Amino acid sequence: MQAGSGETIGVVGGGIVGLAVARELTRRRPGTRVVVLEKEDRVAAHQTGHNSGVVHAGIYYRPGSLKATLCTRGRHLLRDYCAEHGIAYDECGKLVVAVDADELGRLDALQRTATENGVPGLRRVDAAGIRELEPHAAGLAALHSPATAITDYVAIAEALAADVRAAGGEVLLGAEVTGLTRERGRVVVCTGDERYAVDRLVLCGGLQADRLARLVDGRDGPRIIPFRGEYMRVHAAKEELVRGMVYPVPDPRYPFLGVHYTRRVGGGLEVGPNAVLALHREGYRRSDLSWRDVRDIATWPGAWHLARGNWRTGIAEVRGSVSVRAYMRAAQRYVPAIGATDVVRGGAGVRAQAVERDGTLVDDFRITHADGVTAVRNAPSPAATSSLAIAEHVVEEMLNRRG
User: Fold this and answer.
1) Cα 166 from Cα 178, distance rounded (Å)
2) Which of 54, 57, 148, 142 is nearest to 97 (CA)?
3) What residues are paired with 352 via a beta bridge?
4) What is residue 255's predicted lDDT score, i.e. its pLDDT?
5) Cα 89 to the chain's mean position, in Å?
6) Per-residue CA distances from 315 to 276, 320, 321, 331 (Å)
7) Of 103, 115, 184, 388, which residue has the fewest beta carbons closer than 10 angstroms?
8) pLDDT level of residue 402 (50, 70, 90 thresholds)
9) Closest CA to 204 of 23, 4, 337, 64
10) How far apart are CA 320 and CA 192, in angstroms?
């Protein structure tokens, strides 16, 4: 790839975050040559294409964090983008439900967080209010977020890729990055037999984020620990029992939101996901195994610290993964009318959870810069919701550092 008259910027990763960054670069830097390198034969092949399609409103995130700030901004940008491009966007709303008295204190804390984050239309309802919004749901109290929505993130990623190409950029598929070097002030990206020289590079590798970043700065950490999230699909006869979304009150000691009910924008109702340690970063079946990924988990001290602190939860998640009845036993606390005989196994996704050497979970988005390379080292949920705002943030930081 030869440099044109202007600057050339490479973006590694054809998920929604990488494509959003590439689009933002074409908007903010007209004349800049933007090239996206994606190792798969399509965009949105991994985390973007395997999530539940939820557009979060900012209920869960620590006020003042990047997650909180960029989720709020990103939701507005995403809603407008979907409207402009004719992509489905349904504000079907969400209930976060406390089913027993022990959860009411956590619900109170969650309400304070959501209020500080300015979640629009948020209100607390009692048991009667729950039944009014979701007649088949059960609980003592709940938070209702009417602005929580569902959309099609694969369609958004494809539209972003089309925007990049329309602006003169390139989205190269089947281009797996195998090495990074620096030559005469430029970054050379190796993809098999091809070499691409760029002036600046942005790494948005998702499940491979730590490995890509390590090619740049040699830092081993935080390391990605993959968790597979499995979904159940509700039979058509009962999919109308949930109007929008029904979520549990999350346990702040655990990074996942718990099994929940979510309508899909294309139709149907899903239950999930759970969160089971995956033995393959890009493996969507229980039988998938990568010895390289297993070795990376086993040799990372943080993984063992994490396991020691969460082994009971881990056992429960594995039990639910193996047994549909056990999986639905937990879910039925929220919608009793949907049981194990009312679902079939659906798809699965893998979440990239960054973990520090001491076992600390990296909770916020983490973006680093090193000698012309910007690395998105951690971008878990709500990264899809926040993608357009993450792109603004990344590009702004790049331009400021350039200045």
Assistant:
1) 28
2) 142
3) 226
4) 65
5) 17
6) 9, 9, 10, 17
7) 184
8) low
9) 23
10) 41
Which pair of tokens denotes residue 93?
Answer: 């709303």
pTM confidence score: 0.95
* CATH 3.50.50.60 residue ranges for the chain: 8-48+154-222+365-402
Structure tokens at 382: 């709500």
pLDDT digit string (tens) for 184-236?
889 999 998 899 999 999 999 999 999 999 998 888 889 999 999 999 999 99
Instruction: Please give the structure tokens belonging to residue 46.
Output: 């991994």
Average pLDDT, the chain: 94
Residues making up the chain, counted from first to last: 403
Q: Which residues on neighbouring strands pair with residue 262, listed in sequence order?
A: 245, 270
Give the angle subtended at the CA of 17 by the CAs of 361 and 169, to the nearest 5°.
150
CA distance 374 to 155: 26
Domain 223-238+255-361: give its CATH code: 3.30.9
Give the tens place of pLDDT for each residue, 257-267.
778 999 999 99
Question: Which residue, among 390, 374, 388, has the nearest Cα to 11 in the 3D structure?
Answer: 374
Contacts of residue 354, Cβ cutoff 8 Å, sequence gap at least 6: 209, 210, 222, 223, 224, 225, 361, 362, 366, 377, 378, 380
CA torsion 309-310-312-315 (nearest 10°) is: -140
Chain Cα centroid distance, residue 312: 25
- φ/ψ of 316, rounded to 5, equals -65, -40
What tokens appear for 386 in the block?
A: 């926040």
Q: What pLDDT is stored for residue 1 in this prediction? A: 39
CATH superfamily membership of 8-48+154-222+365-402: FAD/NAD(P)-binding domain (3.50.50.60)
Cβ-based neighbours of 329, under 8 Å, separated by 6 or more: 340
For the chain, residues classed under CATH 3.30.9 are 223-238+255-361
Cis, bond preceding 273 (omega within 30 deg of 0): yes
d(CA 274, CA 333) in angstroms, rounded, equals: 15
Return the number of other C-beta atoms located less than 10 Å from residue 139's C-beta. 26
H-run or E-run covering 61: none
pLDDT per position as a tens digit, 10-53: 999 999 999 999 999 999 999 999 999 999 999 999 999 999 99
Q: Cα 370 to chain center, whole Å?
A: 24
Collect all residues with Cβ–Cβ distance below 8 Å to 177 and sequence separation of at least 6: 12, 37, 39, 189, 190, 191, 212, 215
- From the list 391, 324, 362, the residue with the least C-alpha distance to 157 is 391
